[in-house]
C-alpha cells in the first residue's frame, strides 16, 4: 500500500543552463551573496553538538560537471546555515586518483573505495558511461551495491539512475532519469515504474532526478526534507537559486 503525492505546476520558462555554473562558488560566496556575514571557519577544537551526516559522491572518469557540482554545492553549503547540524561532503572514486570530467576539468577525489568513511547520503552523478561501461565495471558495481545497502539516503542525478537500478535496489519502485533516456531506462529495467512527467521522485530512501540544469533540485529537496523549509530556503538563497518545492514537478511515494 502506498500514497502518491504529485505536484505539477503550470509550465514555466526554462532555466538557463548557465545557472549551473553559478553553483561553482567558493565556500563563502553563498553567504556573501545572500547578504550574510561570511561564515567563520571552524577549528578542529569545535565539536558539533548535533548530527553531521556524511555525503559521498561517487565520481569516475567522464562524470558530467553539473551533475556532480550542483548537488555538491547544495549539500556542502548546509554547514554555513548550522554549524552543528550539517552535511559533510566528499568525493569517492575507485582508486582515489585524479580523473577528468566529461567537460575536461581535472578533479582529485577525497577517498578511494578502500579508505572511504561510512556514507549516510550516497550521491550518484551521471557519467558518459552510466548506461554502458560503468555497468560492466565489477569493482564499481560491487562497491555501489554494498554502499547503497548501508546508506540512509541515495540520490541519483541524470543517468546515475542506471547503475543504481543495476544493483536491483529500485526493483518494484518508482523512479525517473534524464528525459531523453527514460525509454531506454524502462527497457533495461522493466521492474521499475519510470515516470515521464516529473523532475524528481522520492521512493523510500531513493531520490532519482533528471539532472542537467535541474541538478540543484534533488539536493535542495533533501535539505528541506532533513532540516526544514527555512533551512532549504536559506541554502538556496546563498546560491541565488529560486527554490520553491511546490513549483517543481515531483513525486513522493510513501510506503506503508
Can you lay out the helices and strands and say which pair or pack?
Layout: E1 2-7, H1 29-33, E2 52-58, H2 65-76, E3 86-93, E4 99-100, E5 106-107, E6 111-112, E7 121-124, H3 133-136, H4 138-150, E8 153-157, H5 161-166, E9 174-175, H6 182-188, E10 193-194, E11 200-203, E12 206-209, H7 216-227, H8 229-238, E13 250-255
Helix pairs in contact: 2-7, 7-8
Strand fraction: 15-25%
- Sheet bearing the most strands, described? 9 strands, mixed
Number of domains: 1
Order of helices and strands: EHEHEEEEEHHEHEHEEEHHE
CATH H-level superfamily title: Class I glutamine amidotransferase (GATase) domain
| CATH top level class name | Alpha Beta
End-to-end CA span: 6 Å
Q: What is the helix fraction of residues, given as a range?
A: 25-40%
